[in-house]
Amino acid sequence: xxxxxGATGHLGNTAIQSLxxxxxxxxxxxxxxxxxxxxxxxxxxxxxLKTGNYNDYNSIVDALEGVDKLFLISSNDVAADTLLQHxxxxxxxxxxxxxHIVYISQEIKDDxxxxxxxxxxxxxxxxxxxxxxxxAFTIFNDTLYADSIGKFAGEGFLENGIFFPAGDGKVPFIPxxxxxxxxxxxxxxPGHEYKTYAITGNNAYSFEDIAGMLxxxxxxxxxxxxxxxxxxxxxxxxxxxxxxxxxxxxxxxTAIRNGEFxxxxxxxENLLGRKPMELKxxxxxxxxx
Length: 289
Ligand SMILES: NC(=O)c1ccc[n+]([C@@H]2O[C@H](COP(=O)([O-])OP(=O)(O)OC[C@H]3O[C@@H](n4cnc5c(N)ncnc54)[C@H](OP(=O)(O)O)[C@@H]3O)[C@@H](O)[C@H]2O)c1
Hints:
Blueprint: E1 2-4, H1 10-21, E2 29-33, H2 40-44, E3 48-51, H3 57-63, E4 69-72, H4 82-96, E5 100-106, H5 117-133, E6 136-142, H6 149-153, H7 157-160, E7 162-163, H8 176-188, E8 195-199, H9 207-218, E9 224-225, H10 229-238, H11 243-257, H12 268-272, H13 279-287
Helix pairs in contact: 1-8, 3-4, 4-5, 9-13, 10-11
The structure holds NADP nicotinamide-adenine-dinucleotide phosphate.
């Protein structure tokens, strides 16, 4: 039995669809969800649902009964102690004799100097904790999701221009669908135990590059406005964006500007057995008519 957490989220759902496409019978997949009402598509496909919350240890212990492999998708609950949440899931897995955990983490150049320590510390803390349990692990160090570009680019960016202070920093963006497929490969084939993979695209692009691609795709000039950090924070504040969100976006922009995601490492093509989706193709599917 394979259990996928965050199954009503984007990555969890796409991983389950990839497992089904690979021929894993639906009754051998369990989806951990917080709200079963959001998982109608999964139950219609015959996937088992278990209700659980990372904060509620007993709910996770119950959900993991009889599970051999766990796809642990990192929590997006910014208000919570996410490291503690991940430890809860890992402890519950240990208690149930889970044999292999695939954990979603973050690819970055240098943990010590990163502009997003609040993200990296949780991921590295989780990975260290997982390694100490002795359970076989596979760590997915994901780069930034191509699906996040719209959030970074700002309100109405196709018309107003991309308003994001990332300078000319480049990111080997990758769509979540490719990550879900790679996770399904790891969960269904041998040889991935005790490994850490860089999950990134083959080519890295700046927001100037993205603006150029979007201009080609939409037939209208999309500008890349590259404000300085203060101008950016002031504009977002005036638009009513909460301070924490401004801080979060500014930190990611800084990390991109500093080239932190441009690590020049990737295991994705090997895992997929094909080239990962190119960014322009993703943008065409997402923003083309
Ligand atoms: N590298 C990147 O660019 C990048 C970008 C975005 C996110 N991420 C990371 O990758 C993860 C997956 O991304 P995504 O796009 O699939 O995010 P998503 O669509 O927001 O899904 C997150 C999932 O986590 C579940 N969750 C949150 N708190 C939980 C809790 N306390 N107990 C149980 N489940 C909980 C959510 O449940 P509900 O469906 O009930 O809300 C949701 O299903 C994120 O959580 C984040 O850590 C990375």
